[in-house]
């Protein structure tokens, strides 16, 4: 990423000054290009991350007992309890031995087997 910025700065630094403005035109153009790069970075990087974070937050708020979830480590299980005040979730991973594991809420990748009305949106 830095090499593209360096190339753009070198390209515009060596540009000929516009006629009649005393050489100030290229600095205005460079300023506009830098602002344009920040706007592009906002729409390409920051806005999609913000949308994904909002989607994840609504998913975590909707968690309830017996939802099947996929953890970021690859473990699939059913939610036994959600402790939002402690930022934890207890996952039941084996019905036969009644094995339960405690994870951070941040470890939840997605909810499996969502109802059809949630899949449409």
What does it look like?
With 121 residues, the chain is α+β, with helices and mostly antiparallel strands. The chain folds into two domains: 2-60; 64-120, SH3 type barrels (Roll), CATH 2.30.30. It contains three helices and five strands; from the N terminus they run ααβββββα. It has helices spanning 2-13, 25-61, 116-120, and strands at 68-71, 76-83, 88-94, 99-104, 108-112. The chain has a five-stranded antiparallel sheet, covered by helices on one side. Strand 3 and strand 4 form a beta hairpin. The two termini are 35 Å apart. The mean pLDDT is 82.
Low-confidence stretches: none
Q: How many strands?
A: 5
How big is the Rg? 25 Å
Q: Output the structural class.
A: alpha+beta
Tell me the fraction of residues in β-strands, as a range: 15-25%
What does the overall shape look like? rod-shaped
List the helices and strands and how they pair.
Blueprint: H1 2-13, H2 25-61, E1 68-71, E2 76-83, E3 88-94, E4 99-104, E5 108-112, H3 116-120
Which terms would index this structure?
five-stranded antiparallel sheet; 5 strands; 2 domains; alpha+beta; 121 residues; SH3 type barrels; single chain
Short description:
The protein has 121 residues and is an alpha+beta fold.
């Amino acid at each position: 990423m830095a090499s593209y910025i360096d190339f753009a700065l070198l390209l515009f630094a060596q540009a000929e000054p516009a006629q009649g403005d005393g050489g100030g035109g290229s600095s205005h153009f460079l300023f506009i290009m830098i602002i344009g790069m920040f706007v592009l970075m906002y729409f390409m990087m920051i806005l999609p991350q913000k949308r994904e974070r909002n989607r994840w937050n609504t998913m975590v708020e909707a968690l309830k007992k017996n939802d099947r979830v996929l953890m970021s480590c690859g473990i699939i299980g059913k939610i036994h309890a959600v402790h939002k005040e402690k930022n934890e979730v207890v996952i039941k991973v084996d019905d036969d031995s009644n094995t339960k594991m405690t994870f951070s809420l941040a470890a939840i990748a997605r909810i499996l087997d969502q109802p059809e009305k949630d899949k449409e949106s």
